[in-house]
Design a protein that fits this description.
The complex is a heterodimer of chains A (about 475) and B (about 500).
Chain A (H helix, E strand, L loop, with lengths): L5 H16 L5 H16 L1 H25 L4 H25 L10 H17 L8 H9 L1 H4 L7 H9 L6 H34 L6 H32 L17 H7 L2 H12 L9 H19 L3 H19 L1 H10 L7 H23 L3 H11 L19 H22 L4 H7 L2 H18 L17
Helix pairs in contact in A: 2-3, 2-6, 3-4, 3-5, 3-6, 4-5, 6-8, 9-10, 9-18, 9-20, 10-16, 10-17, 12-13, 13-14, 14-16, 16-17
Chain B lengths: L4 H25 L3 H12 L5 E4 L2 H6 L2 H8 L3 E3 L7 H12 L6 E5 L19 H15 L6 H10 L3 H8 L2 H4 L8 H5 L40 H16 L2 E6 L6 H17 L3 E3 H4 L16 H18 L12 H19 L4 H8 L5 E6 L9 H11 L11 E6 L4 E6 L4 E6 L2 E9 L2 E6 L18 E6 L6 E10 L2 E4 L1
Parallel strand pairs in B: 1-2, 1-3, 3-4, 4-5
Antiparallel strand pairs in B: 6-7, 6-12, 7-8, 9-10, 10-11, 12-13, 13-14
Helix pairs in contact in B: 2-6, 4-14, 4-15, 5-7, 5-11, 7-8, 11-12, 15-16
The chains are: A mainly alpha (about 475), B alpha/beta (about 500).
């Protein structure tokens, strides 16, 4: 069962209704039941790996807690040993199983990071070990997040599972709107752009340069809409079930620097890497060189986490280098701005910075999407071949999308950009919609449902398991 | 935890409004092909006495308008494009949910198909074939409401559960028709979308000029009796006999391959076993392979008239079916017959293809004068000569280099022709008493003695055209059309 399936659309209202009816104290058991059912429906074998992870995490956390009590040095060492052992086991399991060849591995990279984060919190004393195994199992397997995150923290989730908030009508509406937006991003934009991008990236060497450049830009939007769409659905579903999940995207392409991009893109992973790798390595507290080295380490880890192919490593390294380069050149850039008397807060300056940041992020996405380094270089080279006649000779419609479909894709992207600009300026769209009169609200909601049903890429021939981040 | 009644009501109202909008979208977006074909079936189900079942061969060959015009028998053409026997069987079961025909005519084209699932077929088929097969099944199935029978049908015909979904909820496949919506899609909202006015039949108007002729099989054993097609033909016969419905099994004329002929033998064997009539039109000489086919597999409208009249005669002679002609309740059938006849008449009076026009002129709804100048490449065109010979039945057209004239005066029932330097004089026609005289290569006379100033066969601006066809009204003699053609080998361009 996938988010994009009739099964899920049937399960969700039933799950929400029962969750609404049963006593608050027992809700976590119900959520665990449907989480297990959801996961097993996707892959039974993978459930075995997850069960093992739950057991290891649960036992390790209890032992860490036990050995951490008191000031005995031997005890502390034992706790550290257990923590290290558990992390090694889980990391090894993630690397071994994530190919899916031995046992199913759906969502393994996400729930392993959750588990390791939890163990680290317990080890550092930031969290108490969870003594209720069902509660911990729910934390690891909570179904809205299980496939592609957000990678939540125990400190946020466990208290909510213990005492979920009341699901009122406003909360339902808010969650529902978030789910709709997620489906719109995924089905109307991402999957539509994926057709064009897939067609071009299949043989970029045979495509006109500008088409390759456009496909590369469209891929930036595709992966954003795909992943942010998933996250939005996950957050909305959790909200309807009475659980608040952290934001995972915050207008990332509005960022004015690569460092800011990472504060807005896949926030749950970025913060996880910050909290559990960058800061423990010393962060920026141990000198400039160590800071740069730590950044590089963090992004190398991020690249490896995304996949074992060299392209992911290069993608991660590129982001690290962008940031190191950004820090090194900061004084120079500041000087230029000062000499040229550029208004730092002016719209033009901000726009230029946003566009430059997008360019670099976009360049890195080529390595993320390409099947090999060789192909990535071909794409980059091709992208600089200027063939503007593709806009007038109708060759744009040779890549899987008709003119009407390209228009729908463009309208979707424009809507996305508008929404992101509003969000960037702290305008809460959903809140505004909810505050409208019932008629406007209904028109927006029903219009969105119809747009998704009609313009969405789904149905016959659609591969329901194709969320990009599901593979990680 | 308190739930406000107003919240529940609002949620319910929202769901209702959403479902209503989705329902409207479904109506607009769904493919109209199936509804187009079967809309009249649902509306006239209680008037239908005969069902024509089978593949596209049936769609093109058996015309309810002709059957009604000739015998007053009401029928519906349920044929489906690409319908193999199992599809036909299920189509019959669906149809029998709505009507009680007294007679079923089932064609056995593709009886030799020996695969069960349309999405699987066998290894000899390509993915495109499978996709086409699935697409064609939509024409057969989309119109039927979702119920137990439809679910059973889909499960029997389609193996892949993913593909099954698109037949059980057609929005699953049609939601992306948004970019091809036309006015007809919106008319469906008010129930006045286009409909097939031939009660399920579709006429084709081309001519297959070179149908293939294939040898018969070495034996008369047929297919062996164990193909999926044969199994379902038996089921169809069983079903009809169980319900007391007369059944005629046919093989409609086409350019039949050796495999088709083996299937014919099989159909004959099965019909003999069940004691039901087998109408092997291939052997009956009713339909002319050279003039009555649209392509190697399908009849054109002329073929359909002949085939329908042939079947109609058998059904009418059985004496069980009422003649509804003149009954006001059946005026739609009358209108359909008239409309079809008007279409044929239009083809006779004017057509873009000279082959087509000559072929349809054999219907004799109008009279015709054909003139071919000497030196025309039409004299080397066997197909053209065959079409002309269909009128005259004399060998003159085969032995002349032109000029050549043919006058087919329907009112008098006379046919006149002249070749080379021959003249026609005092030819009595509805146009008047005609006089024809070839003078020189670019000039000839054809005038009525009552109006000698009008030379029908000469026009300064059309001297380059080597072929002329004049049609005139059988009764009044009024000229209805005057077409000019230029020959280039066996290609003809109309001027």
């Amino acid at each position: 069962m996938q988010f994009v399936s009739f099964g899920f659309l049937l399960l969700l209202p039933v799950a929400a209704l029962i969750n609404f009816i049963i006593p608050r104290k027992l809700r976590y058991i119900w959520l665990l039941v449907i989480s297990a059912a959801f996961y097993i429906s996707i892959d039974v074998k993978a459930a075995a790996v997850m069960a093992g992870t739950v057991v290891v995490t649960y036992v390790a956390a209890l032992l860490i807690e036990k050995f951490s009590e008191g000031s005995d040095k031997q005890r502390t060492k034992s706790a550290a040993l257990i923590f290290a052992l558990a992390v090694i086991i889980e990391t090894a399991a993630m690397l071994i199983f994530r190919s899916g060849k031995i046992l199913g591995a759906i969502g393994i990279s996400f729930y392993m990071l959750k588990s390791i984060g939890y163990l680290a919190d317990v080890y550092r004393g930031d969290e108490k070990a969870e003594h209720n195994p069902l509660m911990l199992a729910l934390f690891v397997s909570f179904f809205p997040q299980i496939i592609s995150g957000p990678i939540e923290r125990a400190g946020n989730m466990l208290p909510q599972f213990s005492y979920p908030v009341t699901v009122d009508f406003d909360r339902m509406r808010d969650g529902f709107l978030q789910i709709l937006w997620g489906y719109f991003l995924k089905l109307v934009i991402a999957d539509r752009l994926a057709i064009f991008v897939g067609s071009v990236y299949q043989a970029p060497e045979n495509c006109p340069g500008t088409v390759v450049a456009i496909a590369t830009v469209l891929y930036s939007f595709e992966i954003y809409c795909d992943f942010a769409g998933y996250s939005s659905i996950a957050i909305g579903v959790a909200k309807i079930l009475g659980i608040d999940v952290m934001k995972n995207f915050d207008s990332p392409y509005m960022a004015e620097s690569v460092a800011e991009f990472w504060r807005r893109w896949h926030i749950s992973l970025s913060t996880w890497l910050r909290d559990y790798i960058y800061i423990p390595l010393g962060g920026n507290r141990k000198g400039t060189f160590r800071k740069y080295l730590n950044i590089i380490i963090v992004f190398v880890v991020s690249g490896i986490w995304h996949g074992s192919a060299l392209t992911f490593l290069v993608w991660g390294l590129l982001h690290a280098l962008y940031q190191v380069f950004g820090y090194i050149t900061l004084p120079l850039r500041d000087k230029i701005v000062e000499v040229l008397r550029i208004d730092r807060n002016g719209l033009s300056h901000k726009t230029i910075k946003t566009l430059i940041t997008f360019f670099f992020v976009n360049l890195a996405w080529i390595f993320f999407r390409a099947s090999s380094l060789e192909q990535a270089f071909v794409i980059i080279k091709k992208s600089f071949e200027f063939t503007p006649w593709i806009f007038t000779d109708k060759s744009m419609i040779n890549y899987g999308l008709s003119a009407a479909n390209i228009n729908v894709g463009m309208i979707g992207i424009i809507l996305l950009i508008v929404m992101d600009i509003l969000n960037y300026n702290d305008v809460e769209i959903r809140e505004k919609i909810i505050r409208q009169s019932i008629w406007y609200r209904w028109i927006i909601m029903i219009g969105a449902i119809l747009a998704i049903l009609i313009f969405g890429i789904w149905g016959a021939g659609y591969d329901a398991s194709s969320f990009i981040y599901q593979q990680f | 935890m308190k739930i406000k009644i107003s919240s529940i009501l609002k949620t319910a109202a929202f769901l209702c409004a959403t479902l209503a909008c989705v329902f409207v979208a479904t109506i607009v977006l769904r493919s109209k092909d199936s509804n187009y074909k079967y809309k009249d079936f649902f509306e006239k189900a209680d008037q239908i006495d005969v069902l024509f079942m089978g593949s596209s061969h049936v769609i093109n060959a058996l015309n309810p308008a002709v059957l009604y015009e000739k015998y007053g028998i009401t029928s519906y053409n349920m044929g489906g494009h690409g319908s193999i026997m199992q599809s036909t069987y299920w189509e019959l079961l669906e149809a029998l949910q709505y009507c009680n025909p007294k007679c079923v005519v089932v064609d056995t084209y593709m009886l030799q198909k020996d695969y069960k699932y349309l999405d699987e077929m066998d290894e000899s088929y390509s993915d495109d074939d499978r996709a086409s097969s699935i697409s064609q099944l939509h024409l057969n199935l989309d119109c039927w409401p979702l119920n137990k029978l439809k679910i059973a049908i889909v499960k029997d015909l389609i193996q892949d559960p993913e593909i099954q979904k698109q037949f059980l909820a057609d929005f699953y496949v049609y939601h992306n028709r948004w970019e091809e919506l036309g006015s007809n899609d919106y008319k469906a909202l008010f129930g006045n979308e286009d409909r097939n006015n031939l009660f399920g039949a579709e006429m084709r108007y081309g001519i297959e000029l070179a149908p293939g002729i294939y040898p018969p099989p070495a034996d008369k054993d047929g297919l062996g009796g164990h193909t999926v097609g044969e199994e379902y033909l038996r089921k169809i016969i069983d079903e009809c006999q169980r319900r007391g419905i007369d059944i005629y099994v046919t093989f409609l004329t086409c350019s039949a391959s050796t495999d088709d002929k083996r299937a014919i033998d099989s159909a004959q064997i099965i019909c003999d076993q069940y004691g039901v009539p087998f109408v092997n039109m291939q052997e009956m000489g009713v339909v002319d392979l050279y003039t009555d086919l649209n392509d190697t597999g399908h009849m054109n409208a002329l073929g359909s008239i002949k085939a329908t009249e042939c079947i109609g005669k058998m059904i009418a002679e059985s004496g069980d079916l009422p003649d509804h002609r003149g009954d006001a309740a059946y005026s739609d059938w009358e209108n359909s017959a008239e409309s079809f006849r008007r279409g044929i008449y239009d083809m006779e009076v004017g057509s873009d293809s000279i082959y087509q026009q000559l072929d349809y002129l054999t219907q004799n709804d109008v009279s015709m004068i054909l003139y071919i100048n000497d030196g025309s490449q039409a004299f080397g065109d066997n197909q053209m000569q065959r079409l002309i010979h269909n009128f005259t039945l004399t060998p003159k057209i085969y032995h002349t280099d032109g000029p050549y004239i043919l006058i087919n005066d329907v009112a008098s029932g006379q046919i006149y022709e002249a070749g080379g330097s021959e003249m026609l004089d005092h030819v009595s026609t509805s146009m008047g008493t005609l006089h024809y005289e070839p003078v020189e290569h670019l000039f000839r006379f054809l005038y009525a003695e009552e109006d000698p100033d009008t030379n029908y066969l000469y026009d300064d601006s059309k001297v380059d055209y080597d072929i002329q066809i004049i049609t005139y009204d059988n009764e009044t003699g009024e000229v209805l059309s005057h077409s000019y053609y230029k020959s280039y080998g066996s290609n003809y361009t109309k001027g």
